[in-house]
Specification:
Number of strands: 11
Number of helices: 6
Distance between the termini: 38 Å
Strand content: 25-35%
Radius of gyration: 24 Å
Structural class: alpha+beta
Strand order of the largest sheet: 1-2-3-5-4
């Protein structure tokens, strides 16, 4: 239980990765909990503002959902189970003042708390396509956090609430689908204003967009859940949905993913996180040249601080290195590398 509260770092942060184990209910503070192993592009969310890094390599995600709802029914039940699934979690990135990044729970709280997404605003659970790639399922949730309004105060201090407690939050997604496709939305639970789902054709594919407001927990709202059946991937919608750069060939991508067929590739929902070898090489070269420039700058500064003039050979070397760095940065941009 977070008796020392939370420090908000950034709101509306997006966390992507695989869920570690099942979700569970924490009775001390009415939280639904699960952990996510963050993707390569979300690793920075493991580190709090004091330099502490979550020792288990995971990011806890928490929400105080309406107490009448069962976490097992929605997050652990059969085909809806989120364990080991690829998810996108949107919410408030916080530092937990009750639990340290090293896994301990200091009696008087800590400034070196582990990072969390708390509260969750929305959760999009993506599942790999069916074996025949005719369809694929996603689950979508939107929440308003109950916060301390659901907890009986047992001490002299006010019960702490996570940031943005009892707010009317907006959950949203945009998923590319083939033109003329018609997603099938099955609402599992709605304690929220009416959802808005639209399909917008654009060029060679369409965007299926969802916008759902949670409503406020204190007004008897704060929860929405739907299962959406989507058509299977085309190569184009797969590439767009994973954020994959079009400059790379599909055979290269299959090699990086370790698969030998397009259908097997479509089952890899994490491929947007891959760093192509050409990008890895460029980033290594850029780091090396940047380090060399720093060394030359320090050497020049030593001479100048001693009362001398910048040596011509070092000035020439610096100019050459800076030219190399510019060329590498240009190549990186051309390939669309991160």
């Amino acid at each position: 239980m977070g008796i020392w509260g939370w420090d908000e770092l950034i709101d509306n942060v997006q966390l992507r990765g695989f869920v570690v184990g099942p979700a569970f209910y924490e009775g001390n503070d009415d939280d639904w909990n699960f952990s996510v192993k963050p993707s390569a592009s979300c690793q920075s969310l493991l580190e709090n503002k004091n330099g502490g890094v979550n020792s288990d390599g995971d990011i806890g995600c928490e929400i105080q959902a309406p107490v009448t709802l069962d976490v097992d029914e929605f997050l652990n039940n059969g085909t809806h189970a989120i364990a080991n699934q690829w998810v996108t979690v949107v919410g408030t990135w916080v530092r937990d003042r009750s639990h340290s990044a090293d896994g301990s729970s200091p009696l008087l709280g800590t400034d070196n708390g582990k990072t969390e997404i708390h509260p969750i605003t929305s959760l999009l659970v993506e599942r790999a396509p069916a074996a025949d790639n005719r369809s694929r399922l996603v689950d979508f949730f939107v929440f308003s956090s109950g916060g301390s309004i659901t907890i009986v105060n047992i001490g002299p201090r006010p019960n702490p609430s996570a940031p943005h407690t009892d707010e009317d939050r907006l959950g949203a997604f945009d998923i590319p689908i083939p033109l003329e496709a018609t997603p099938n939305v099955t609402v599992r639970a709605q304690q929220s204003p009416p959802p808005d789902f639209q399909t917008d054709p654009t060029g060679r594919f369409a965007w299926f967009r969802g916008r759902v407001r949670s409503g406020k927990y204190s007004e008897g709202q704060g929860f929405f859940s739907a299962t959406i059946e989507l058509p299977g991937f085309t190569l184009l919608t797969y590439l767009v949905s994973r954020g994959i750069n079009f400059r790379f060939g599909i055979r290269d991508l299959m090699k990086w993913a370790g698969v030998s067929s397009i259908r097997a590739l479509f089952a890899r929902l994490d491929t947007g996180e891959f760093e192509p070898p050409v990008c890895a090489g460029l980033n290594q070269q850029i780091a090396s040249v940047t380090s060399q420039i720093g060394q030359v700058n320090r050497a020049i500064a030593d001479v100048v601080n001693a009362g001398g003039k910048p040596p011509e050979d070092l000035v020439t070397e610096k100019a050459e290195l800076e030219g190399n760095l510019t060329d590498l940065e240009t190549k990186k941009q051309e390939f669309g590398c991160r």
